[in-house]
Amino acid sequence: MLVSITSAYVGSKCADFYESILSNNEERATIIQSEISVLIRDMEPDDKIISYFSLLMYRYNEVFKRSTLDIRRLKETNMLHPYLRYMYFFLRGQQDVIEEQYETAFQSFIKAEALLDRIPDEYEKEEFYLKVVELFYGMNQYVRAALYLERALDKLSMQDRQFEQLVRALLENVELLIEPNTQFKERYQAISQ
Q1: 3-class DSSP string for the chain
Q2: pLDDT at residue 164, rounded to an integer
Q3: Average pLDDT per block of 10 residues along the chain, 193 residues long
Q4: Residues 6 or more apart from 23 whose CB is under 8 A from it?
């Protein structure tokens, strides 16, 4: 029986690949690129990771395999650069959350969020905010988790209304966690009178 490799693991390898490209380490980048190619075959389905890897391969070929400089293609690559940097920090943070390395994940997500305004895709922003919710939930920081849940709600499309209802119900439960003593006192006073 084949064990499926998580997309988060392959995403973290992609982040390593990008790091090697940025540091101009062709040998390391080539080794990691080969590893990722094998891992993707057994990875759970995830179009986003495959797309990210394809963009990285484009960048890899631009940096290490081209002998002539094409200004138009260079400009296209520079337009992709903010997205590649965003994905790097996002995937690093995601992997750190899985490994419960919350402080490191927090630092990565701060850097990813700084690039988020340069990402035109609203779904990407929604996903980012939901991953940050996971981080703060793991850190037992429910107030901050609730704030990011609200940001995710702002990015939802009309098709996601059922999800919105679920998130709103979750927010109500978070509020109960935040102020349990106040809620209890109010209920106790109402019952006792």
Answers
A1: CCCCECHHHHHHHHHHHHHHHHCCCHHHHHHHHHHHHHHHHCECCCHHHHHHHHHHHHHHHHHHHCCCCCHHHHHHHHHHHHHHHHHHHHHHHHHHHHCCCHHHHHHHHHHHHHHHCCCCCHHHHHHHHHHHHHHHHHCCCHHHHHHHHHHHHHCCCHHHHHHHHHHHHHHHHHHHHHCHHHHHHHHHHHHHC
A2: 61
A3: 77 90 89 93 86 85 64 49 84 87 93 89 82 88 84 66 60 56 48 43
A4: none
pLDDT at 152: 79
- Using an 8 Å Cβ cutoff, are 16 and 32 in contact? yes
Separation between Cα atoms, residue 17 and residue 31, nearest integer Å: 9
| Cα distance between residue 54 and residue 58, in whole Å | 6
pLDDT computed for residue 167 by the predictor: 61
> Alpha carbon of 186 to those of 63, 152, 177, 189: distances in Å?
64, 31, 15, 5
Q: List the structure tokens of 147.
A: 């704030």
0.70 exceeded by pTM: no
